[in-house]
Amino acid sequence: MGLVTALVVAAGAGRRFGGPVPKQFLPLGGLPLLAHTLRALAVPGLVDRLVVAVPPGDETRCLAEVVAPLALPIPVALVPGGAERRDSVRAALARVEDRTDLVLIHDGVRPFVPRRDLEGGLAAARADGAAILAVPVSDTLKRAGADGRVAETVPREGLWAALTPQAFGRELIVRAHEAAGATGAAATDDALLVERLGHPVILVLGSRTNVKITSPEDLAIAEALLARGASA
Questions:
Q1: Angstrom distance (rounded) from CA 135 to CA 124
Q2: How far is CA 225 from CA 30, 108, 208, in A?
Q3: Is the predicted pLDDT of residue 202 greater than 80, yes or no?
Q4: How far is residue 120's CA from residue 199's CA, in Å, rounded to a whole number?
Q5: What pLDDT is stored for residue 19 in this prediction?
Q6: Beta bridge partners of 166
Q7: Which neighbouring-strand residues pair with 154?
């Protein structure tokens, strides 16, 4: 069996969050947010390598503040990310060894990934080539019109909210990104690029504690989850 490599996308500037410090370096429970994310993924026997895309120029900072203090049990490589998420993933993919079978792609600001979710996503990807963690949509959805009023209510039956990590066969996800690069097609997640190839993507029920930190309110929620003993 080949290697499993987890790619962590942590190259954003965090403009929506605000403040002078990119959100992936903000403290959570005494450690940078990104440190919790890496520790959650570095599970020997499940994940063999980590490749982390960081803001260009922040490689030394990330090594000193995040990677070195953790003494993780698996190797970690740092790469400069790009202007868009897709660019960062492609830069990280370029560092994946050929003997890798499966690639996990994860947001650097999702610090709470239970081991069972990693196991479920990897098992589904081994069986079908592509799988994503997701949760059923529970809120009523409204589509807004140009005037800011409700244009319609969208039925939520059958709708799922995509999470990360997303797991793919290495050759499949490389091919998907090459195709996207050739056309310049944008995507909000990597599964969409695989879907455009016509390859099915399996939905794997994930945990609702696998929150993405995009605002100060989210960071407060993460502190509360950490205090309650959430896996990080």
A1: 16
A2: 14, 17, 11
A3: yes
A4: 19
A5: 67
A6: 105, 132
A7: 141
For CA atoms 102, 129, 202, 143, the dihedral sign is positive
- Collect all residues with Cβ–Cβ distance below 8 Å to 99 and sequence separation of at least 6: 2, 3
The DSSP-derived string for the chain is --EEEEEEE-----TTT-SSS-GGGSEETTEEHHHHHHHHH--TTT--EEEEEE-TT-HHHHIIIIIHHH--SS-EEEEE--SSHHHHHHHHHTTS-TTEEEEEEEETT-----HHHHHHHHHHHHHHSEEEEEEE--S-EEEE-TTSSEEEEEP-TT-EEEEEEEEEEHHHHHHHHHHHHHHT---SSHHHHHHHTT---EEEE--TT-----SHHHHHHHHHHHHTT---
Amino acid 90 reads R
- pLDDT at residue 186, rounded to an integer: 75
Residue with tokens 């239970």: 114
Tokens of 97: 């060894």
> Which residue, chain included where needed, has tokens 């970690």?
76
Token pair 């039956």 in the structure block, residue = 157
* Model confidence pTM above 0.70: yes
Angle, vertex CA 111, rays to CA 169 and CA 188, nearest 5 = 50
Between the two ends of the chain, the Cα-to-Cα distance in Å is 27
Yes or no: say if 41 and 115 are a contact pair by the CB < 8 Å rule. Answer: no
